[in-house]
Structure to design on (466 residues):
């Protein structure tokens, strides 16, 4: 198992999950304890919404909206078959869908090239290299249907487990696994050694 | 040779395909989460702080107003509920100027004409501040949290609009319909208001602000002084004097946000 953003992926229950449940219970007793939870999820929620909206500022607004809704609904959250991560991303998905209904009809993939931007400043040469490295991959992703792209984002950006992705997308864990592995095999057909 | 990151072994249990392994590794690097903007983190912290420190408005409203209920019976019970709904829809307090409102309240009953004068004077100060900014800069984000001046103006207008609409409904029908954004918590509605106003043209936001302010002046001007001063007439809790509700959601609200705007202007001029 490896840890990413304080979570352990790979599908098995871990000490990290238990820690997270303790954090949730603490926040349910006292909202002041909600801080560690949003610190843990804000980057992933923000980046997910960044890919859904294509707009930095809208993504920031919507991220706020997600956490405001989560704060309001937290007393009613019960960890019955859905983790706090899946619960938060369900809220995020609904918020993004509401936003898109008011904006434009399709899921944006415009943001992904910017999601390739570095987390820290880099040189012009470095930036050029990065764009060149990931541009072909972006082109491949853009060719997938919106739902499949969303499943990949939920795995690689939101870093959800397959069970959590299933919970967010209203599918079984097995269906989520099939969707993602099918997408990987589709991408693989077009993926060459000179890409990435 | 690329090694499959361990966290993806559930995707590729037979990870002996080098191309798939490289693809997953590339997706992992390409789609890694970005750090949320610092101003978003600050805004989220403010939301949390406000939630923690928020006076439970429902508890205040829940306090009985037995005199009203016992004297006026069922009709007034409806008015009390309407007043409570109006107060909940506003739910907006600006503690920083509560002292000033208290001072004015202690000077005696407020008259409609005096409140109109105060509103006009404070509006002139607000307009002067907006003029310093100019429409060209009203779309710039980050003035207060992630909000632009335009979003702040739209936010202020919404609350003034609820004062206008609430006053009209209460005076004419004795009811107040709390639905849509009015039915949400203050934090929820503020976030939605900010999102809704982001794409609106500055010109439209300013025009609406002017229009609603004009309606507010008209409503206050037409309001009998006793209603402005007597919470029981509108079914409000005893400590919520109607005119302070108007002040708190109009000029006092401007002052609350003007501080952030001035600080932002100062940083731009520095």
């Amino acid at each position: 198992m490896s840890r990413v953003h304080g979570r352990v992926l790979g599908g098995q229950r871990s000490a990290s999950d238990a820690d997270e449940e303790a954090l949730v219970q603490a926040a349910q007793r006292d909202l002041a304890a909600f801080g560690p939870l949003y610190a843990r999820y804000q980057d992933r929620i923000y980046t997910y919404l960044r890919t859904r909206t294509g707009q930095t500022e809208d993504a920031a607004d919507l991220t706020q909206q997600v956490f405001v809704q989560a704060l309001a609904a937290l007393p009613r959250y019960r960890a019955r078959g859905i983790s706090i991560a899946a619960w938060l991303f369900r809220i995020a998905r609904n918020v993004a869908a509401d936003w898109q209904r008011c904006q434009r009809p399709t899921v944006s993939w415009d943001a992904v090239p910017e999601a390739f931007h570095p987390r820290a400043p880099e040189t012009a040469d470095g930036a050029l290299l990065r764009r060149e490295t990931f541009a072909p991959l972006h082109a491949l992703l853009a060719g997938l249907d919106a739902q499949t792209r969303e499943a990949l984002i939920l795995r690689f950006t939101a870093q959800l487990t397959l069970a959590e992705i299933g919970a967010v997308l209203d599918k079984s864990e097995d269906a989520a696994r099939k969707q993602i592995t099918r997408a990987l095999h589709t991408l693989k057909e077009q993926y060459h050694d000179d890409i990435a | 040779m690329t090694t499959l990151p361990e966290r993806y072994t559930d995707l590729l249990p037979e990870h002996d395909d080098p191309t798939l392994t490289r693809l997953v590794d590339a997706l992992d690097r390409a789609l890694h989460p970005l750090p949320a903007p610092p101003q978003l983190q600050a805004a989220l912290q403010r939301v949390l702080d406000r939630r923690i420190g928020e006076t439970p408005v429902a508890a205040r409203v829940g306090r009985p107003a037995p005199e009203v209920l016992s004297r006026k019976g069922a009709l007034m019970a409806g008015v009390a509920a309407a007043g409570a709904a109006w107060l909940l829809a506003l739910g907006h307090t600006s503690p920083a100027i509560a002292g000033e409102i208290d001072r004015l309240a202690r000077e005696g009953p407020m008259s409609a004409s005096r409140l109109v004068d105060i509103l006009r004077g404070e509006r002139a100060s607000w307009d002067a501040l907006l003029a310093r900014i100019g429409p060209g800069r009203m779309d710039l984000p980050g003035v207060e949290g992630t909000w632009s001046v335009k979003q702040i103006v739209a936010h202020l207008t919404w609350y003034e609009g609820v004062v206008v609409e609430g006053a009209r409904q209460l005076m004419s029908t004795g009811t107040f319909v709390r639905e849509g954004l009015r039915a949400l918590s203050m934090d929820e509605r503020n976030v939605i208001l900010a999102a809704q106003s982001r794409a609106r043209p500055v010109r439209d936001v300013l025009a609406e602000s002017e229009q609603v302010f004009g309606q507010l002046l008209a409503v206050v001007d037409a309001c009998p002084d006793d209603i402005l001063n007597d919470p029981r007439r509108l079914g409000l809790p005893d400590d919520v004097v109607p005119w302070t509700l108007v002040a708190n959601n109009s000029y006092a609200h401007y002052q609350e946000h003007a501080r952030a705007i001035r600080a932002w202007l100062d940083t731009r001029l520095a």
Summary: The CA atoms of residues 31 and 71 of chain A lie 8 Å apart.
